[in-house]
Write a structure and sequence with these properties.
Chain lengths: ~110, ~120
Amino acid sequence: DIQLTQSPSSLSASVGDRVTITCQASQDISNYLNWYQKKPGKAPSLLIYDASNLKTGVPSRFSGRGSGTDFTFTITGLQPEDIATYYCQHYHNVPYTFGQGTRLDIK
Amino acid sequence: QITLKESGPTLVKPTQTLTLTCDLSGFSLTTSGEGVAWIRQPPGKGLEWLALIYGDDDKRYSPLLRSRLTITKGTSKNQVVLTLTNADPTDTATYYCARRGDLWGMWFDPWGQGAQVTVSS
């Protein structure tokens, strides 16, 4: 199975900050990497697909990049409503595993 | 508008079979590119992909749980059913169904609201 390792596991940042989360795959997954936001008590929601494509309607402060084994997810200009846990997910093959999550809160 | 909604028991005893239903609205699981997945999240833990069924009835399973899982279409084309046999307290989780978000890729969008299941005697 392909393992996805996210870092950091948690971070605190201030409103307006630029926040970056990394996701490293245990083998080459091309660009088959997606990012989700999960808020407590809510279902996860898709933000980025195929490593760098922003889902329609998602604010442009969210972005992603990468290919192969190394990926990054960035929030440029953190907003209070961005407090959540963020997950990467690959679909190179079955099982479509998720990273362990990065919990983001406000300083 | 596309929506999914999970339903099922909130409490299951160990060794029993857990059956969850996902009601689909705004789309039907009838074409080969369409797909619906089940994903769960144990309390305080991360997301775990469980299974996927395509519109042509092709199926994929997590190898870790393959022997205990069955995913099928329900009696109507607008339902997907997940069965997990021999339930264990480690199966306690919120179970989500989600639509395959694209005919070519494999992202999940949208998701249902989730169904909380506790496995306990």
